[in-house]
Amino acid sequence: MDEKRLREELANFGRRILGSGLAVGPGGNISARCAEKMLISPSGLSFEEVLPEDYVAVDLGSGAVLSEGRPSSEVAMHRAIYLAREDVNAVVHVHPPFVIGVTSGGGSIEPMFPDFVALIKRVATLPYILPCTERLAQAVKEAVQNAEAVVLLNHGAITVGATLKEAFYRAQILEEAAKITTIARLFGSPRVLSREEQEELLGLEAERYRQSVLKRT
C-alpha cells in the first residue's frame, strides 16, 4: 500500500475507533508500518480531528521523526512492537472501558465465543506501568512476541495485525469479550471454550479463509 492510501486508512480507522467507543477525547493512538518507517497518530489530538496528512512519520531504525508534528507519546511502544515482530504492520492502542473495568476489577478475558478464538487466540496481561515510558515499551515488546492482544492493567489495551483492519477488529472483539464476561458474571460462572473446542474452531476451513481475508491490504 502506498503512503497516501495508508494515511487515508489510518484516518479512517481512527474515526472508527472513536465511533466504537474504544477511546474518547484525545485518548488512544494507532500506527502502521510504511517500508522502513511507521506512520503514527499525532500527540494531543482526538481521532476526529486528525487528517491523513497529520500522521507523523518516524524512522523505525533510529526513532527519528521524519515529518512535521509531534508523534504520540506512546511512540516508543509502537516502535518496539515493529522491531519485535516483522509480521506486524499495524498497532492499535485504545482505552476500552469494559476491558479496563473487568481486568482492573480482578477479572480476566477468556475465549468464550468463536470470533475471539479465531481472531485473537492469545492475550497477554501486564501489570500497571507508567504510560509513555521506555519501561512500558520494553514490557510490551516482550509480551507481544507471544500475543495478538496485550491488556495493560488500569490503562488500556494493544492489538496488532498484519493490516489496520485486523488490528482494529481485534480491539473490537477484545472489548466485546469483556462485555460478555461482565454479563455472564451477572448470571453465574462464565463458561470458557475448552482447548479441544478451540482447536476444532481453528480447524474449520471457513475460519482459515476469514483470517486470510483480514490480512489482505
Description of the structure:
The chain has helices at residues 3-19, 75-84, 97-104, 114-119, 134-143, 164-187, 195-202, 205-214; strands spanning 29-34, 37-40, 56-59, 90-94, 123-126, 149-152, 156-161. The chain is an alpha+beta fold. It is globular. The mean pLDDT is 95.
Please outline what is shown here.
With 217 residues, the chain is of the alpha+beta class.
CATH architecture: 3-Layer(aba) Sandwich
Measured between the Cα atoms of the first and last residue, the distance is: 7 Å
Output the number of helix runs. 8
Shape: globular
Q: Please estimate the helix content.
A: 40-55%
Q: Mean of residue pLDDT? A: 95
Strand proportion, as a percent range, falls in: 15-25%
Unreliable segments (pLDDT under 50, ≥5 consecutive)?
none
The largest beta-sheet arranges its strands as: 3-2-1-4-7-6-5
CATH superfamily: Class II aldolase/adducin N-terminal domain
